[in-house]
Amino acid sequence: MASAPSKHYTDDISLLVVTLDTNPFFWSTFSFHFSDFLSQVLAFLNSILLLGQLNQVVVIATGCNSCSYIYDSSSNRNHASTNGTMPALYSNLLHNLDEFAAKDHQFTTDHKPPTVPSSLLSGALSMALCYIQRAFRAGPMHPQPRILCLHGSTDGPEQYVAIMNAIFSAQHSSVPVDSCYIGSNNSAFLQQASYITGGIYYRPPQLEGLFQYLSTVFATDLHSREYLRLPKSLGVDFRASCFCHKQTIDMGYVCSVCLSIFCEHHDKCSTCSSVFGQAQSDVASADSRKRKAS
Amino acid sequence: MNNIAGRPLNGDVEDDDEDEANDDGLEAWERAYTEDRSWESLQEDESGLLRPIDTTAVHHAQYRRRLRALASNAATARIQKGLIRYLYIVVDLSKAASERDFRPSRMAVIAKQVESFIREFFDQNPLSHVGLVTTKDGVANCLTDLGGSPESHIKALMGKLECSGDASLQNALELVHSNLNQIPSYGHREVLILYSALSTCDPGDIMETIQKCKKSKIRCSVIGLAAEMFICKHLCQETGGTYSVALDESHFKELILEHSPPPPAIAEYATANLIKMGFPQRAAEGSVAICTCHEEAKTGGGYTCPRCKVRVCELPTECRICGLTLISSPHLARSYHHLFPIVPFAEISPSSQNDPSHNFTNTCFGCQQSLLSQGNKPELSVSCPKCKQQFCLDCDIYIHESLHNCPGCESFRHSKSVTSSQ
To answer: Record's superkingdom (chain B) (predicted)?
Structure first.
């Protein structure tokens, strides 16, 4: 039944992995409604699939307690919608999103957190990169992968190391990470991600026209991007923040053992407990004391 | 005309007797036909096309053996690693390096692998420095000084690839020793010697030099291309390095890339120190300044040193005017995965997957690939001991070698992961 593969992958076929922010704490306090947002995103995803027959779209929902795949255009588990009123993509995605939201809600603990919890962006990026590696393994003919983060929640500082690991792995595999950030202040993590991996970071000024921003900035495949004038990244802040006060600093002190950053001179590193300025082991100092005594 | 083994080239009955009597008479390529029968591992798929030979199981078994060896060395969860490294690479350019047993010659293979090693080294250790030393005609010369930019080292190496004379191990060690004495005390001193010769031409007592290196806490490792030598083994044992001999080109590549992640730090080898570093901001687009590295006017796209306000073109670097080390926070973040490694995943054998008491899924959590092989039988898979999610073998290799994040632990807020406890 199976014949030799007849797919012809050219430069402009893309595999788009979208991480969709579904953090209920963020959306309940945001001025734009999630349903309006979702309708524009679904139209955009449908247009990606219409641009090329071989284009693939995968959607990963980023919740505040868990992440999960909610749509894969190349899977054979998609079924046509029952009453034919909307495209199959819409019905499948909405169905899975409902299931995901219910499961995510179950994980919420009872006590109210002091600040709005952030979405698990590191988990979604890691899953996206694993999926893209699977696409690379399919052989020499594969679509060009990229990741698009539709994100609104603030950055969670506890995810910094994991997000940086994901960014470096994406850079190593030449996978650009685009970010469409809809929250109020710019997200430093997503700006760094797009800068390091060669993607686009854009914060749409008017969310009612989100579909227009998505389709003009983020819809083109990687090969065609060199012919377009896309938003340039300005002012990516690469300064570090010190571990003691969490303020961004221009100049600081770095522990040579664990690379923690401090803004002022300390005698002892608070992270790895190494004492600065002398040999680390007690054996060496004990030996020198014995030699002095004898 | 006889071949090397002394047998007549036209095969006749004498050959068969010799082969049966003495198996060492078989060349390696002949053994591949009589014993290994490589054609039997070919498979066809449904339409009659040849399927590529399935090496994933072999690859994965090798990978897990390596992981187990590493895990047994690092007995506790966190071993201190020497992150700020000053490494000298000693390349042997003696007559033995022009031998052609490695294709096209040992020198060409060494040059190519050193280039990829330098790039990988700076990728994994952005705060470290590398220097190149060559040894030929009985003397050792410093090709490049300790520096942090990969391009200058690679360019210098590619220009000087003529081989002649004898290699001198002692001269190379003396040169490296005098250079490494000038570096700050928090840096880890390392030497990687790529030795093709089978002898060394030394002016004095090499044992004294080895003791000098040991006292200066220089960690010497050797990769041999010819055969194992006692002096190299002794050197590595005394200084705490590793000695390995390459069997062929791919083995050599594997051995040299093993030196790119930071080795476990021997505690008294480097003092802990607070290093003053600057985190420059990117200059505004359209600003004009004279950059200190090229000494010409440039517009936009550079960095401004926070102490003396001069422009530098790229990071990481040392400011030429005030001497401040300039880096950006992603450079530090590149080394964090050495400090917070993820645990190796546990294997799940296919037979235990039929056990209904455990909750086994049919798809890999990371890439959604089906974990069932043809015929709906479960294949070998792995699971994370912390979050209990299942992954396929390819995701296991990718996660541990490149990603350094477990997708399962990162995707569940209420699971115990290493980084959240920091």
So the answer is: Eukaryota
